[in-house]
Amino acid sequence: MASLVDSEEALAASRIQIVKYVAVASNAILFFDYALTLHLEVTLVWPSRWTLSKVFFLLARYLPFLEFPGVLYYVFKTDATLKPCAIINASVIMTRVLGVAVAEDNVPPLNLPGCNLSGGTFIFVGIPFIIVVLNELVLMIYTLWLGFKAYRHSHNPLIITLYRDGIVYFAFLSIGSVINLTNLISGPPYLKDLFNDLLRILHSVFACRIVLHVREAERRRHGETYLEGMILHSDVQFATATL
């Protein structure tokens, strides 16, 4: 019996460690992408006037950073009890769109660091993610249909950038949400929240990159238009050489 318990604890510990590695790697992606795109944000977003789209961008951009201390507690806290885990989990849930990371507040009776999801009921774990999957699939299908119907002959770089990045964004997130939902419902214990942090980070990274790429394309278009206007209205004249 003791050997069976030891083997179960060893299996649980190894699975939990995998979840921790994925959580840390996911947040490393967040910080790395932020470093790569900060110059675009400073140039294209910060000087712009305050609009609803700017507010949404900043929320999508910086909410994952507000969750980071909770992630550190979630991953590394030793002797975590149910109450602080429930508080951390609830605060993280409140900052995630449509319950992207909803989880049951169950802490296993193992001396393992962090708050570890061992199980949960379908209504708390599965339903919010089904809503996410359906929402992303509908948006992706609508984006494809609208882009094909209205803009398939457009050569506007702004429109091309918007629909190219949008389609890639929704495709990746739809696939990721389906995988995450499948794992939450039927995955093994202690691995059910394996993709939660990764999916949360990808939502932020992809959405912010779409906005930055669209604004960059618009800036380039304005720059080309300005340059063409300068040439048309200049007094510089060109002539072919004569022999």
UniProtKB/TrEMBL annotation:
The chain crosses the membrane at residues 18-36, 56-76, 85-103, 123-145, 166-186. Residues 21-66 form the DUF6533 domain. This is DUF6533 domain-containing protein. Keywords: Membrane, Transmembrane, Transmembrane helix. It comes from the Eukaryota. The lineage of its organism: Eukaryota, Fungi, Dikarya, Basidiomycota, Agaricomycotina. It holds the Pfam family DUF6533. It comes from Mycena belliarum.
